[in-house]
Amino acid sequence: MEIARPYLLFLGDVPDALAAKTAVGIVDWRKDWCIGQIRLPGCAADTGLSDMSISEGASAGAKTLVIGAVNAGGRLPDHWIASIVEALDSGLDIASGLHVRLGDISEIREAADRNNAQLHDVRHNSMTFATGKGTKRSGKRILAVGTDCSVGKKYTALAMDRAMSERGYKSSFCATGQTGIFISGRGISLDAVVADFISGAAEWLSPETEEDHWQIVEGQGSLFHPSFAGVTLGLLHGSQPDGFIVCHEPTRTKMRGVETPLPTIEQVIETTIQLGRLTNPAIQCIGIAVNTAALEDDEALAFLAKVGEKHGLPATDPVRYGMEAIVDKVSAEFGAP
């Protein structure tokens, strides 16, 4: 899949920044690939890019309209279709990370056909996967897990990959969601894989490699989320992590989109180790990554210090304070590069 750049990011009319996390993530990690953003009336998200119309974006050189917003179930709202058709008629390709296939919508398919445009369904792929085997394979792996969905697992994995590479480790990022695929250019949207093959897809994504190579695997969902725990468990078993990082957002009391209470960090550590031992008996927690965006600096530092001391682990905000402390933990437990 070759997605033409630069991107024009479509945010629709989503109610908050989390609902536009695909667009925000692309800007945070690949801003140089982006020209601007399109927001419909009522949109409460903002990537910081220049607001443009579709015609302005096309005139500025955009090649692909990326649908950078998500919603529960990955649906495409009917009132977004007109904007997508307009983009196709303006000469742009379309790339989407939603569950719905763009070509299944007649207006979009017809517009793509008459303009000879490409429709990229990043969440879908033509590959078939074997079922997971759980056989120990060479190489080292780190998995980001979470107390909830949308707590920073992707950012944690990307930041860890960058920090380990800068420290001299052989390291690579393994994308398991649509935004990670837009950022890395490779990966699998695991939540679109048939349940029986999730662990096998995770094994394919993080295959046997050199013993000193670290694969940093983007997490999905949470073992405690009633909507997404199945994907999370398959990813845990298939990625067979040697170490995992717990990702947390400290202001939440309920899990996103449901009434289920948020688990504690301790519960996540204990459950991840218990379930992860099925495919890697030596699995261990190597750190805690906290999204402190809602906290002032002194509050954030105090919270990180408290959490780190309580669990005897390095605790950091990957965006604010970097991942050096957790890389130090890797060096102490597994050796320097």
Automatic annotation (TrEMBL):
InterPro entries documented for this protein: DgcN-like (IPR011669), DgcN-like_C (IPR035086), DgcN-like_N (IPR035402), P-loop_NTPase (IPR027417)
Residue span, D-glutamate N-acetyltransferase-like C-terminal domain: 129-327
Protein name in the entry: Uncharacterized protein
Domain D-glutamate N-acetyltransferase-like N-terminal: 43-124
NCBIfam families: DgcN
